Amino acid sequence: MAATLTDTIDELARPLADEAALDLVDIEVKGGGSRTRIRVIVDRKGGVDVGTCQKLSKQLARLLDEHDPVKDRYTLEVTSPGTDWPLRTQRDFDRVEGRLVKVVHGDDEDSAEVIGEIASTTAEAVVVRDEAGDTHEISYDRIMKATQQLPW
């Protein structure tokens, strides 16, 4: 089975991200020909600064030029996920521990919303501490939507 462009970029980017202690969250490839846009999304516990994204972008651009998986011109963007990126897995919640999140959980007929900081995670659930100091253990399979929130 032939590797896709996304797979090839992943193979080039993952060691660079690992070396920089970054989680490679996602790779998006859009367009084609001279309008190909490559977006590499990285994060880590505590967040990612612009300088880290710039450094990874330069390193990855060099590798992309050497290996030439994109035959035409392309645009490369290395960025953090941003506050609207969906949180789904333990790894996602681990990265944002201590940050403010909004978690909608339940099912279509009975749902609830919790806003608070990530207190901890387990393999089965995330624990959110709300503004009143109460903790809410929410199973991942009950999460309908979860995103980071800005603190203002």
Can you tell me about this structure?
The protein is an alpha+beta fold and 152 residues long. Helices cover 26% and strands 38% of the residues. The protein contains three helices and eight strands. The strands form two sheets. The protein has a five-stranded antiparallel beta sheet with strand order 7-6-5-4-8. Strands 1-2-3 form a three-stranded mixed beta sheet.
Task: Note the topology.
Layout: H1 5-19, E1 23-30, E2 36-43, H2 50-67, E3 74-79, H3 90-95, E4 100-106, E5 111-121, E6 125-130, E7 135-139, E8 143-148
Parallel strand pairs: 2-3
Antiparallel strand pairs: 1-2, 4-5, 4-8, 5-6, 6-7
Q: Short description, anyone?
A:
The chain is α+β, with helices and mostly antiparallel strands and 152 residues long. The chain has helices at 5-19, 50-67, 90-95; strands spanning 23-30, 36-43, 74-79, 100-106, 111-121, 125-130, 135-139, 143-148.
